[in-house]
Amino acid sequence: MKLLNVVDTSWLFVESRATPMHIGTLSIFALPEGAHDEFVQQTVALLRDTRTFASPWNLKLNDGALVTSIPRWVEDDDIDMDYHFRHSALPKPGGERELGVLVSRLHSHQLDLNRPPWEVHLIEGLAGNRMALYTKMHHSIVDGGSGVRLLSRMYSTDPDARQMLPPWSIPPSREPRKAAARVLSPRALFEMARSGGKSGVALLRALRRWVESTRDEGSNLKVPFTARRSALNSRIKGSARRFATQQYDLGEIKALARAADCTLNDIVLYLCGTALRRFLKESDRLTDAPLTAGIPVDVRPADDEGVGNALSFMIASLGTDIDDPLVRLAAIKASTREGKELLQSLPRSALTPYMMMIMAPYMVQMMTGIGASTRPVFNIIISNVAGPRRPLYFNGARLAALYPVSLLTHGAALNITCLSYADTLNFGFTGCRDSLPHMQRLAVYTGEALAELAAVLRPA
Amino acid sequence: MKLLNVVDTSWLFVESRATPMHIGTLSIFALPEGAHDEFVQQTVALLRDTRTFASPWNLKLNDGALVTSIPRWVEDDDIDMDYHFRHSALPKPGGERELGVLVSRLHSHQLDLNRPPWEVHLIEGLAGNRMALYTKMHHSIVDGGSGVRLLSRMYSTDPDARQMLPPWSIPPSREPRKAAARVLSPRALFEMARSGGKSGVALLRALRRWVESTRDEGSNLKVPFTARRSALNSRIKGSARRFATQQYDLGEIKALARAADCTLNDIVLYLCGTALRRFLKESDRLTDAPLTAGIPVDVRPADDEGVGNALSFMIASLGTDIDDPLVRLAAIKASTREGKELLQSLPRSALTPYMMMIMAPYMVQMMTGIGASTRPVFNIIISNVAGPRRPLYFNGARLAALYPVSLLTHGAALNITCLSYADTLNFGFTGCRDSLPHMQRLAVYTGEALAELAAVLRPA
């Protein structure tokens, strides 16, 4: 038995049918040649029949979704395997479109909080001798970074390794944890807030003042970087989600960053901003002011003596008001440079209060569910999670892509998270079905934005 | 715009994540030979691209799931087709097991009440050159009988008919309605209660007295036919469902009924009772007292002058306390004969009050959600719906089976509904996943019960 801390508990209160608080991953495997059906069947049998559960896969809430008492994790010694592990298939032709549709649907359904809150779906019928694995887990257990680490238990860097087991049956290794993933999940925000040292009640009271100021047009208390409302900041109407993906060659993005004398993250923002500009313009929803993105960043504080980086946060322009590609990129570069300089000028002790100042309204929006009725702090969170660096395998099947599938909150109807893996950068777009019709175009436009930038930077 | 009546509105209040109030059908098609993939693709394209919607497919609630004002149906002129029509596939080998698993899952998810509350899923990958169609619709729009009629709009008795359209695009025909289907849906119960002429409030007050009496062990007010609690009468813990099917040759069942000198319905009860006895005994949950079933029946009232039958209701023993097949069948026969004699002795004017006496506690259990905390009125509802009599086709594909998928309420963790179609009788078993592990065995045992009875009645 383990009590949930304040942060974890908060996900249970925020959970609703329209805003379920689970996150996921989508793994694509290239199967060994000539062994498609056999490999899928063997993997299904392996996953279905492996019924030992390491923490946290065996934990459920004592009280289910009721949250009538103090929530705590208890071990479930009677896990209904066929509920948690599911075997699905794509209709023909089994392409990226059919996969996106299925994952969108699977991600739209709430987890059953009377059980250990996770599901794993093995998906057959993916064209090109491939197979997919979609996992979901409640955010009260994992965030994006730890979710990827949990899943990684099942992989090996050795293509010849066999007798490998599903992730839930493998206890955590003793290896020291790597640096925290740079994912600005709601969970990470609350953790940061908590580390500020204030009590929960006092914190909430302070935060509420910010929210009140954002609602009061005449307030003198200015929330910095207040963004304009956009189509991305609507209330989440229902549970239905859209999910789309885009995979890049990491080397190509790095080359572009060198050519443009900017960071890899600037290129990521450029691709997102360029695609968002085109997407919103098409539906006549582009705002005059540039969209802004909240971005988790590593900074070296001003008083740092080499002990290490700190995770902080900045808000940057996505340049969506600018038509010319190079001018747009320059605006993004300038915006992130200034943001980072400001962060680096702060002593370590000031980083958390600074973060809180920016993030407070956003957090209260989530906690109270009033999101989308206040002005947004920023228009979208774009996270860049550092994933596994070496190519991974599962019983000889090569992990070809690893996409993050994220959660939405009221006022944040689109999430873009990138996950680096080996020599690829994997974008996952998670959006509200009602607010963002044709969202899959965003992924397409992001891809085309790269080609356009390459042509502009390196004219033939 | 159309106001919902009291009955329809009640489904919105009863709706919860654990007890979603939608019902469904599962149609199995035998495809034209040599045209599997092509036929499936053409049907998907046809369904996806037919975007005209006849009533009630185009109706949604004015207020979604909130029910803050008086609910009414409004026409939705911006229907998100890709939400309502879905193309799914079965994993290999694509047998009845894989189909049952998928339909169980699809039936477990709540409908989005912000949209017209229906979904249609075309399922490919079914072995034996077949295809399946699963439909779901909210009970505030249809009951079992009208749901089958709605779906039937898409079929023809002509195997050569082509250019056929999906059910949602076909307006209701002008044909007079056939006799009401004999399905004892909650909806039908409320309709009957309403036709009793009492106002809603007075009715509810009267009903509540019955419920109080069932809770008070010392009460002198006896609810007739009060059943023992059984595994079938537990509270519904979560939304997860199990679904299983069994198809019989209608001629074979009729022959058995003739051989045993009983009704077709007696054979249905025998098959259910025999399977339930074996199923509950295996898990050591068989009660000493026989399980009882609530059964909708057509009766000719005592004062009827040939104007027609009336829909009424009786409670019968399922003989689950009896080991010998023929003695068990005899007990069921005696039970239904006496029940029917009692009903037939009543004048037409007394039928509804009599029904109310039996059904009141059940209805209040549903309305108030206190089901499973009172003694059950009966252990299970077994309905027998009269479906289409002639073989049906859709663009040349033969409808081979048509199964009902039903809803559960607290205290009613298993539903068995049979639907006759052409020369078949199609059983749909819908159960609570948590209360009824291995529920698919029930369907298997029901099949084996037929063979056993045939052997006993017609020894070789």
TrEMBL record, chains A, B:
This is diacylglycerol O-acyltransferase. One of its GO terms (biological process) is response to hypoxia. It comes from Nannocystis pusilla. The keyword Cell inner membrane does not apply. Keywords: Acyltransferase, Glycerol metabolism, Lipid biosynthesis, Lipid metabolism, Transferase. The lineage of its organism: Bacteria, Pseudomonadati, Myxococcota, Polyangia, Nannocystales. It catalyses: an acyl-CoA + a 1,2-diacyl-sn-glycerol = a triacyl-sn-glycerol + CoA. It comes from the Bacteria. The keyword Heme does not apply. Gene3D superfamilies: Chloramphenicol acetyltransferase-like domain (3.30.559.10), Nonribosomal peptide synthetase, condensation domain (3.30.559.30).
